[in-house]
Specification:
Elements: E1 7-16, H1 22-26, H2 30-33, E2 37-42, E3 45-46, E4 61-62, H3 70-73, E5 75-79, H4 89-101, E6 106-108, E7 110-111, H5 114-117, E8 121-125, E9 128-136, E10 151-152, E11 157-162, E12 176-181, H6 183-199, E13 202-208, H7 213-219, H8 236-247, E14 252-256, E15 264-267, E16 270-273, E17 278-281, E18 317-326, E19 329-339, E20 345-347, H9 355-369, E21 373-380, E22 383-390
Parallel strand pairs: 1-2, 1-17, 2-5, 3-4, 5-6, 9-13, 13-14, 14-16
Antiparallel strand pairs: 1-18, 7-10, 8-9, 11-12, 15-16, 18-19, 19-20, 19-22, 21-22
C-alpha cells in the first residue's frame, strides 16, 4: 500500500479585505489556496453593530457582508489573536466568529473566555490532524481574555529600559531595551501546545507580534526618542519564545503584524517564519466607509496605491508560507506574491522574474538576523517556491 502524500498547510499574514467586491480582488489567490489547508490571520472585525472598545487605538472593522467570501476563497482556519479583534467590543468578536464559523472556517486565538481562546482549531486532511493555535503580544490593554471574560489569547511582554553603561553618567545615552515575557502567559502557551499535541499529529502556532515602525513614529516623534528602537528587526523575546515553542512541541511557527516581511529559519528541523507581512489589508481615509486604523497613517500615494499606505517599496512584497507534513518530516517553503494597486494580491509564477526581488529581500533579512537559512529556487505547481533550508 502506497504512503499518503504530504499534508500541505498554506499560512498567510494579516488578512483584512475591505472593498465592495472582496471576492474579486482575492480571486488571484484561489488557485493557490486549492492546494492546501489555508490558515490566515483575520486582522479586523466584521460586524454591523460595533461596540467600540474604550482602549482601542482606532477601529479596525467593517460591515459583516464584506467578510462573507472567506470560505469561498479557500480559508479553512483563522487566528483571531490580533490587536483589532476587540475593537468592536464583544459583539464585534461574536459576529466575526459567527460569520467565519458559518462558512465552515474554524477559529482559534479568541473566544468567550480564556480557555476557549487558547483551544486549538483542528483540521483533518489526508489522514492527518493539524492543530492551529494563535497568540497576540501587541494589543490594547483589556483585550485579553480571562477565565470569565471574552477576548484574545494574550502573550504579554514587559519592556524595560536599562543604562547600557552602569556606573557612568551620560545623559541621553541610548538605553538598552529588554523585553521580558509574562511567565504565566508563556506557561499557558506551552500548555496549549501540549494539549494540541495530544489531539493532533502536527501543531502550527501563530504569533501576532513585532514592531510596526510606521505606526510607532506617529506616536513617538523622531525628536523625542531614537526610532531605531522600533526597527523591523526580530526582537529578543520573539527569538526566545518562537524557539521555545518549537522545543515544546510545535511543528511550525508563523508570525504577523509587522506589515512587512521578516526573516525565517529552521530550528530543530522545524520552520519559524518571523514575519509573513500583509497578505491583504485595505485602508481608507478617516471618515470613509470604515474609518479603520487609517487615522494612524494619514498620508500615502493614493493615486498609485489607493488602499495600501506603504512608505517603502519592499512593503509591496508578500507571500504565503508552505508547510508540507509528510512521513519523512516537515518541508517548508515560501510562495512570493505582490500587493497590487487594485487592492489584490498576486502569487508569482515560477517564471516571473519579480520572484527574485522577493527572494533577494528575504535573503538580506536572513543575513541581517544572522540566520543560517538558505532559500533554494523550486516550484510549487505553477508558482515559484523558495524552499527554506539550513546551511548546516
Amino acid at each position: 500500500m502506497s504512503q499518503p502524500g504530504p499534508t500541505v498547510v498554506l499560512a498567510t499574514g494579516d488578512v483584512f479585505p475591505d472593498l465592495a467586491d472582496n471576492e474579486a480582488v482575492m480571486q488571484p489567490l484561489v488557485p493557490l489556496f486549492e492546494h492546501g489547508i489555508v490558515f490566515g490571520n483575520c486582522e479586523g472585525v466584521y460586524t454591523d453593530r460595533p461596540e467600540l472598545a474604550p482602549s482601542r487605538v482606532a477601529y479596525g472593522g467593517t460591515s459583516r457582508d464584506r467578510g462573507e467570501m472567506f470560505g469561498r476563497i479557500g480559508f479553512d482556519v483563522m487566528t483571531l489573536a490580533n490587536n483589532h479583534m476587540i475593537d468592536g467590543g464583544y459583539a464585534g468578536l461574536d459576529d466575526t466568529m459567527e460569520l467565519l464559523h458559518g462558512q465552515g472556517i474554524q477559529t482559534t486565538g479568541a473566544g468567550a473566555n480564556l480557555d476557549q481562546a487558547t483551544t486549538a482549531a483542528i483540521v483533518e486532511r489526508d489522514g492527518r490532524r493539524i492543530a492551529f493555535l494563535g497568540f497576540c503580544a501587541e494589543f490594547p490593554m483589556g483585550y485579553e481574555a480571562k477565565e470569565g471574560r471574552p477576548g484574545i489569547a494574550p502573550l504579554r511582554i514587559e519592556t524595560v529600559y536599562r543604562n547600557p553603561l552602569p556606573g557612568f553618567w551620560q545623559p541621553g545615552l541610548d538605553p538598552e531595551v529588554l523585553t521580558i515575557p509574562l511567565e504565566s502567559d508563556v506557561e499557558r502557551i506551552h500548555a496549549a501546545v501540549a494539549r494540541a499535541r495530544e489531539q493532533a499529529d502536527h501543531v502550527v502556532v501563530a504569533f501576532h507580534w513585532g514592531s510596526n515602525t510606521a505606526a510607532r513614529e506617529v506616536f513617538v516623534p523622531d525628536s523625542r526618542t531614537h526610532t531605531k528602537t522600533y526597527r523591523d528587526a526580530v526582537q529578543a523575546y520573539e527569538l526566545e519564545i518562537a524557539r521555545a515553542t518549537v522545543d515544546r512541541g510545535a511543528d511550525a511557527v508563523v508570525c504577523h503584524h509587522q506589515a512587512s516581511l521578516r526573516g525565517m529559519e529552521m530550528h530543530g528541523g522545524r520552520p519559524i517564519f518571523y514575519g509573513l507581512g500583509v497578505l491583504m489589508h485595505h485602508f481608507h481615509r478617516t471618515g470613509g466607509r470604515t474609518g479603520s486604523d487609517h487615522k494612524i497613517i494619514t498620508s500615502w500615494d493614493e493615486q498609485a496605491y489607493p488602499y495600501w499606505p506603504f512608505e517603502r517599496p519592499e512593503a509591496l512584497l508578500t507571500g504565503v508560507a508552505r508547510l508540507a507534513f509528510g512521513p519523512d518530516g516537515i518541508e517548508a517553503g515560501f510562495v512570493p506574491a505582490l500587493v497590487r494597486p487594485d487592492g489584490s494580491t498576486t502569487p508569482l509564477a515560477a517564471d516571473d522574474p519579480r520572484t527574485e526581488d522577493v527572494a533577494r529581500h528575504l535573503e538580506a533579512l536572513n543575513a541581517f538576523e544572522g540566520f543560517d537559512t538558505v532559500l533554494s529556487r523550486e516550484r510549487f505547481h505553477d508558482w515559484r517556491l523558495l524552499s527554506v533550508k539550513t546551511s548546516a
